[in-house]
Design goal:
The complex is a heterodimer of chains A (537) and B (263). With 537 residues, chain A is mainly beta. Chain A has one domain: 8 Propeller (Methanol Dehydrogenase, Chain A), CATH 2.140.10. In chain A, the strands form 10 sheets. A 5-stranded mixed β-sheet of chain A has the order 1-31-32-33-34, with no helix packed on it. In chain A, a hairpin with a 4-residue loop joins strand 8 and strand 9. Chain A is globular and about 65 Å long. Chain A starts with a helix and ends with a strand. Chain B is 35% helix and 15% strand. In chain B, a hairpin with a 4-residue loop joins strand 7 and strand 8. Chain B is α+β, with helices and mostly antiparallel strands and 263 residues long. Chain B has 3 domains: 107 residues, Cytochrome Bc1 Complex, Chain D, domain 2 (Orthogonal Bundle); 78 residues, Orthogonal Bundle (Cytochrome Bc1 Complex, Chain D, domain 2); 50 residues, Roll (SH3 type barrels), CATH 2.30.30.100. In chain B, the strands form 3 sheets. Chain B has a 5-stranded antiparallel β-sheet with strand order 8-7-6-5-9, with no helix packed on it. In chain B, strands 1-2 form a two-stranded antiparallel sheet. In chain B, strands 3-4 form a two-stranded antiparallel sheet. Classes of the chains: A mainly beta (537), B alpha+beta (263). The interface between A and B is large, with 48 and 31 residues.
């Protein structure tokens, strides 16, 4: 009997120890075998401290297992890995728990979504968040759901917004302390976006930051008339968190209608901005708008990368940001002070940036090709920062343009609110097995940028454009993929190609690395399949 | 212009030029305003997934009427309104007039924005196609060579205006991704062919010997794609009448209807 009680106690203590506490989130660097949050850590470096894989042995990577989604939609999610178990989302908001060593499935949770969805770009979900023994997922019908990570059973489900009005949730939530924070997609439907925090235990709303200020609120004077009511300002990518400043950082999406700025005079705050929000209250500490009065759909929806570095010889809390508008920025993340801005791809819309980082617009007649094009110089593709190389890495679309046809448009709730169309030289959101992209229309690239100057250190150019995110590792490797269906490893210092594998489908998410039984894995999703690689025995 | 049926020029010539095609698929009539409105709606709501030419989603080619879930006007309008469950095609909130306009545009995509051109007699065009030596490079329904594009279904995807333009301007008629390429292997062998597919590391082509080849770029001594067409311009070789006949012949090439097609 005593041994049985001891056994139960051991089991309980084991279970408690295995819980993903907030403290574990604060110290993800202590457990590089796991991948506990969308970008790997609160600073969003997407950098793994595992160093088993190196330039010398990466050529010996072999495929260990694959997981085929029961869906034809492409994977956009980053998986979480917790003590040997991988948690993954597949379309349409289904959650899978599987053995991270073998790919064998423990359970699948099948979400019953409203059929009445209003989506921009397919049945996208970028993954889960975890706290304690609970997984959190935002859904395409604009709900937030909590699941028991051992059984896949729902614990609570709340409505975050009205899906039929164009709101949807695609980002992986961010956990801070006892709260789950999410933002809404829907910038193509004339929504009024927001970021909100919910109590992880109950789902009760703790705070809400509305991205488009209403009458009487600071920033409302950057709108005229009723345009703010349909002003967009989605937030569809996981933010970052600085525990010392207690600030969360988020990128805000495009104004609505996307392509007809004449319909919404003014700067249109806080669209296309980074906002720093207090983690406990949601109060905005500072903001910076990358592209005021945007007409090119250049959401500032990129992953904020937080680095404690030096600026002009003094230690500084920095924020690195490669924006969709084609400029790389550095900020002081405590104050929001603009420190540096420099184009990283061909651009013709701005003559430059002024001392405060505000763009000095070039005069482009209507019908002129705009560089970069509508998908931007980069987009939501995860960047990476390696503390070993000190370089910032991103996936870029270089030397391509779009011509915007602008049209007056009346807003109808639940209907797309684009304000025209984009044409000429614009690659579509997807591609099939045959390449329709050509060398003279531009190309994709992995770029390494020196954050001190914004200069390119090296570029790995691709024939087609790329939606693949980037992972760097302590072995000085860089992993990424692209639309062509390759997964590859580069030397993080030189950019030279060290290894590649054909994965047969478009890479639309970012790699992760984890370790099980002393073996380092790298996992990548391509098409509707997830692949896990490790060194040959 | 003797022997040519000259199509009257109109702001939107679509309805006239696509008359026979439309007649096969629906009984409705569309106004130019419907088509214009449909084009606007398509650009705003559909093109990011289906592509400007409507051929981007696998096994669907809107431009040539290749649909997965019914092809009558009613079925198309229903699919657009309700979406296709489990796919990226979600339900959309359109009025009846907007659905009508979208269907009107889908029926007219191939010829939207095309100018009216002179279209002659397809049989005379076929004879000219042979006499002018077109088969020495092109292939139609299994006849001819593989050097250049197989034209068996060119009429289903190109407007009459585009076909006539291609007759005059061979270089710009070649889609950039289908250009002629020349590769030299490390042992000095020269390979000429037409590009079928390409990525950062490899290129797939149909060479002038009719072989499907896949080459690794890093193993090549030289690799270039031609920005011009080897076909001489026909400007001085074809009369306006001959060009109209050839246009009629090409416009009538609609392929063999077998369902989803290879591209």
């Amino acid at each position: 009997m005593i041994s049985r009680i001891l056994g139960v106690l051991l089991l309980l203590s084991g279970s408690v120890a295995a819980q993903i506490t907030y403290e574990r989130h604060l110290r993800t660097g202590d457990e590089p075998q796991n991948w506990l949050t969308y970008s790997g850590d609160y600073a969003s470096h997407r950098y793994s401290r595992l160093d088993q894989l190196t330039p010398a042995n990466v050529a010996n990577l072999e495929l260990k297992w694959v997981f085929q989604a029961q869906s034809l939609e492409k994977f956009a999610a980053t998986a979480l890995v917790v003590d040997g178990v991988m948690y993954l989302t597949q379309a349409n908001n289904h959650v899978v728990a599987l053995d991270a060593k073998t790919g064998r499935v423990f359970w699948i949770y099948q979400y019953s979504s409203s059929p009445d969805l209003r989506l921009c770009c397919g049945q996208v979900n970028r993954g889960l968040a975890i706290l304690g023994d609970t997984l959190f997922m935002g859904t395409l019908d604009a709900h937030l759901i909590a699941l028991d990570r051992r059984t896949g059973q729902p614990i609570w489900r709340i409505a975050v917004a009205d899906g039929k009005a164009g709101y949807s949730l695609t980002m992986a939530p961010l956990i801070v302390k006892d709260k789950v924070i999410v933002g809404t997609a829907g910038g193509e439907y004339g929504i009024r976006g927001f970021i909100a925090a919910y109590d992880a235990l109950t789902g009760k709303e703790a705070w809400r930051f509305t991205t488009i200020p209403g009458p009487g609120e600071p920033g409302h004077d950057t709108w005229e008339g009723d345009a703010w009511k349909t002003g967009g300002g989605s937030a569809w990518l996981t933010g970052s968190y600085d525990p010392e400043l207690n600030l969360t950082y988020w990128g805000i999406g495009n104004p609505g209608p996307d392509w007809n700025p004449a319909q919404r005079p003014g700067d249109n705050l806080y669209t296309n901005s980074v906002v720093a929000l207090d983690a406990d209250s949601g109060t905005m500490k500072w903001h910076f708008q990358f592209t005021p009065h945007d007409g090119a759909d250049w959401d500032a929806v990129q992953v904020p990368v937080l680095v404690n570095g030096n600026w002009n010889g003094s230690p500084r809390k920095l924020l690195y940001w490669a924006n969709r508008n084609g400029f790389f920025y550095v900020f002081d993340r405590a104050t929001g002070k603009f420190l540096l801005g420099r184009p990283f791809v061909k651009q013709n819309w701005a003559k430059g940036l002024d001392d405060n980082g505000r763009p000095i617009l070039a005069s482009l007649p209507e019908g002129t090709p705009v560089y970069p094009g509508v998908q931007g110089g980069t987009n939501w593709y995860s960047p990476s920062y390696s503390p070993r190389t000190g370089l910032f890495y991103l996936s870029a679309w270089d030397d391509y343009s779009t011509i915007f046809i602008r049209q007056q448009m009346q807003h109808v709730p639940g209907q797309r609110f684009m304000g025209g169309r984009a044409r000429s030289g614009t690659p579509p959101l997807r591609r099939g097995a045959i390449n329709t992209w050509t060398e003279e229309a531009g190309h994709g690239a992995v770029l390494a940028i020196d954050p001190a100057t914004g200069e390119r250190k090296w570029a790995f150019t691709m024939h087609d454009v790329t939606d693949g995110g980037i992972l760097t590792t302590a072995g000085d490797l860089l992993f990424s993929g692209g639309r062509e269906g390759y997964f590859f490893a580069l030397d993080a210092r030189s950019g030279s190609l060290l290894w590649k594998a054909t994965v047969g489908g478009q890479v639309g998410s970012a790699p992760i690395s984890y370790q099980v039984d002393r073996k380092q894995y790298v996992a990548i999703a391509a098409g509707n399949v997830l692949f896990a690689y490790a060194l040959r025995e | 212009m003797t022997g040519c049926a000259l199509v009257a020029a109109a702001t939107v010539a679509v309805a006239i030029l696509t008359g026979p095609l439309i007649a096969q698929q629906h009984a409705g009539t569309y106004t130019a305003a419907d088509v214009e409105n449909g084009a606007r709606l398509y650009g705003a709501h559909c093109s990011s997934c289906h592509g400007a030419d409507g051929a981007l989603v696998a096994a669907v080619d809107l431009r040539r009427g290749l649909f997965r879930f019914g092809s009558s006007d009613e079925e198309l309008a229903r699919t657009i309104a309700r979406g296709i469950p489990g796919t990226a095609m979600t339900s959309q909130k359109f009025s009846a007039a907007e659905l009508h306009a979208l269907v009107a545009y889908l029926r007219s995509m191939r010829d939207f924005g095309a100018r009216a051109v002179a279209v002659g007699d397809p049989r005379s065009g076929e004879t000219l196609f042979e006499q002018k030596g077109c088969f020495s490079c092109h292939r139609v329904r299994g006849r001819g060579t593989l050097f250049s594009v197989d034209l068996s279904e060119i009429g289903a995807i190109r407007s009459a205006e585009a076909l006539q333009r291609a007759l005059s301007d061979a270089t710009n008629a070649v889609a950039p991704q289908r250009r002629f390429i020349r590769a030299v292997t490390s042992d000095g062998r020269v390979i000429n062919g037409r590009r079928l597919n390409e990525d950062t590391f490899t290129v797939q082509l149909l060479d002038d010997q009719g072989r499907l080849l896949s080459l690794v770029k890093s193993e090549l001594r030289d690799y270039t794609s031609a920005k011009t067409s080897p076909r001489p311009t026909d400007k001085d070789k074809l009369s306006a009448e001959e060009r109209a006949h050839l246009t009629a012949y090409l416009a009538a090439l609609k392929g063999v209807q077998t369902g989803p097609v290879t591209r």
